[in-house]
């Protein structure tokens, strides 16, 4: 199943590329310097695809917030920021960060339940649902991003900082000629690898941060400070807002996503479906009657239809499609 599942009766998700286009048009329109020709182009763009109009209407909500802050728009900073959005090579992430810092977008836009695409426009690196990516940073450090991940990268004269806002990354560190430490921050944790490959997952339900070390060691402490706990190779530890929990043996099969697989070893079907659902936004469910069935194998994330076929062949289950976007595993 390659399409993104959603509840029956709901509209299909707006493609991320359309969000980016709507963002560009929105910032240009808000600058007050859009030309008549550009107005015509905008109108044609809106009319050319229903997704375009839906994305535009969502941004109008932000425009209404800007209008309510008209006194701020009259300030030199606001005018300068909005004018800069017209520059073709202007980094849209920096524009949005300035707008947020000036209070022009407001907390509602940032905290909205469908704000992931807004946040992804701010992130230095991001992946959409079901997407994975690999990057080599300026110092040679390699990072892998799992599905639905937001990551900021900031190198300066004193440190190399990665900030994981949501999702999961795998990091293979490189030594820095300048001797700057590599630090990974989440909402709960401050992690300092010591010649290491490790994985960090920030749960989007607020439960905390999980760090799993493949090789080397990681010094983990709370973001606000405190004593560090050193996590050794083949170990993992949870970090909440109040404590670093004792390390436990890591399940290194959990990093199979880097190679494009979910690996299961006598895993409950319900747990497998929950893991798979991270890569298929919408409704992917498991009937309680088959929830405790066990499965073992490697399942390719790039071909979910093959996963469904493998499960139907190896377990007494059937894939029930209420719509093409709503899938349930039921007893066969």
Helical content band: 25-40%
Outline type: flat
Strand count? 16
**Strand residue content:** 25-35%
Layout of strands and helices, then pairs:
Blueprint lengths: L15 H15 L5 H13 L1 H19 L1 H4 L2 H9 L7 H10 L4 H6 L4 H7 L2 E3 L5 E4 L5 E4 L3 E7 L4 E13 L9 E4 L3 E14 L6 E14 L2 E8 L2 E5 L8 E2 L11 E8 H9 L5 E4 L7 E7 L3 H11 L2 E7 L2 E6 L1
Parallel strand pairs: 5-6, 13-16
Antiparallel strand pairs: 1-4, 2-3, 3-5, 4-5, 5-7, 6-7, 7-8, 8-9, 8-10, 10-11, 12-14, 15-16
How would you describe this protein?
The structure is a single chain. The chain is of the alpha+beta class. It folds into three domains: 107 residues, no CATH class; 128 residues, Jelly Rolls (Sandwich), CATH 2.60.120.1440; 72 residues, Phage tail protein beta-alpha-beta fold. The protein contains ten helices and 16 strands. The strands form three sheets. Strands 1, 2, 3, 4, 5, 6, 7, 8, 9, 10 and 11 form an eleven-stranded mixed sheet that branches. A three-stranded mixed sheet has the order 13-16-15, with helices on one face. Strand 15 and strand 16 form a beta hairpin. It is flat. The two termini are 19 Å apart. The N terminus is likely disordered.
Name some characteristics of this structure.
three-stranded mixed beta sheet, 3 domains, single chain, 16 strands, disordered N terminus, eleven-stranded mixed beta sheet, 10 helices, Jelly Rolls, Phage tail protein beta-alpha-beta fold, 332 residues, alpha+beta, 33% strand
């Amino acid at each position: 199943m390659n399409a993104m599942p959603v509840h029956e009766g709901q509209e299909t998700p707006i493609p991320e590329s359309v969000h980016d286009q709507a963002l560009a048009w929105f910032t240009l329109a808000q600058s007050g310097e859009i030309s008549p020709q550009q107005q015509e182009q905008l109108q044609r763009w809106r009319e050319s695809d229903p997704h375009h109009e839906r994305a535009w209407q969502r941004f109008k909500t932000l425009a209404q917030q800007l209008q309510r802050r008209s006194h701020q728009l009259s300030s030199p900073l606001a005018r300068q920021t909005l004018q800069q959005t017209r520059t073709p090579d202007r980094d849209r992430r920096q524009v949005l960060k300035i707008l947020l810092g000036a209070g022009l977008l407001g907390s509602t836009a940032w905290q909205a339940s469908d704000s992931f695409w807004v946040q992804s426009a701010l992130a230095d690196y991001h992946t959409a649902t079901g997407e994975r990516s690999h990057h080599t940073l300026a110092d040679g450090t390699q990072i892998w991003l799992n599905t639905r991940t937001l990551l900021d990268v900031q190198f300066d004269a004193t440190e190399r900082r990665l900030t994981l806002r949501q999702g999961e990354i795998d990091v293979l560190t490189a030594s820095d000629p300048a001797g700057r430490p590599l630090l990974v921050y989440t909402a709960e944790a401050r992690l300092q690898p010591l010649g290491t490959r490790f994985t960090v997952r920030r749960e989007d339900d607020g439960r905390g941060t999980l760090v799993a070390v493949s090789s080397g060691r990681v010094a983990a402490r709370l973001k606000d400070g405190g004593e560090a706990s050193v996590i050794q190779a083949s170990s993992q530890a949870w970090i909440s807002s109040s404590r670093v929990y004792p390390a436990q043996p890591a399940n290194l099969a959990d990093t199979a996503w880097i190679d494009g697989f979910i690996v299961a070893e006598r895993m409950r079907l319900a747990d497998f479906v929950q893991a798979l659902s991270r890569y298929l936004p919408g409704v992917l469910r498991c009937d309680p009657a088959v929830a405790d069935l066990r499965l073992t194998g490697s399942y390719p994330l790039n071909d979910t239809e093959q996963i469904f076929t493998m499960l139907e062949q190896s377990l007494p289950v059937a894939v029930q499609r209420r719509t093409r976007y709503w899938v349930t595993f039921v007893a066969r």
